[in-house]
């Protein structure tokens, strides 16, 4: 029961034991109940649509590479006006996984394992156990990272002082008179 409570609203378990040579294409589309759960989980007013198109493919000898995109239409609260703000999320998804029992998975990068990674590519590989990976939960993580933490309505600003000019200090008055400016 504990695992079910921690499971992502868009959880989708992919069996990675025998992946097709060209990879396993998957599409995760959230229904109304899942979108409501996503909104609650990420502090949004609503999630109008959510779709993740993913490709799960073999990587290296026994690793897994996950690529794709997550797209969503969301409504948040403007941090200035507190009015609803709509936003579109279109975020690339890219991750690498290694089985725990693999040498690199057991020893990690500090244990003498060596792997070359692209600086612009995905993060270092994560480990997984068994024959499955929750690709839906991973796509939700990329969705969460793409949400603007400080949404603002177009034209809304955080001006505190308004149009009133602050009263000129005695120092500024003297400085202006010394410079001969009025």
From TrEMBL:
<dbReference type="InterPro" id="IPR003772">
    <property type="entry name" value="YceD"/>
</dbReference>
<protein>
    <submittedName>
        <fullName>DUF177 domain-containing protein</fullName>
    </submittedName>
</protein>
<dbReference type="Pfam" id="PF02620">
    <property type="entry name" value="YceD"/>
</dbReference>
<feature type="region of interest" description="Disordered">
    <location>
        <begin position="154"/>
        <end position="182"/>
    </location>
</feature>
